[in-house]
Amino acid sequence: MDKNELLMNIYKIHTTHLVISRIKRNLGIEEDVVEFCKNKVLDKKSLIYRKGKNWYIENGAIKITINASSYTIITAHIIK
């Protein structure tokens, strides 16, 4: 799948309260998690690819997983 599909639907990206707290803990951030993830999707340096039912966004040491059908942020973590 072409990453343009994700970019065209960026306004649909969302997540749950439980995931917000987990991502803040995983990444050590305090900012708005959804906006943080959207900014990573829009960053020209990000590697975006789809594998199965999920989109993966890799930027520096961060990897974000987004469900391809619902555009729900599933997780984000530091790549080890």
UniProtKB/TrEMBL annotation:
This is Conjugal transfer protein. It comes from the Bacteria. InterPro entries: DUF3781 (IPR024229). It comes from Faecalibacillus faecis.
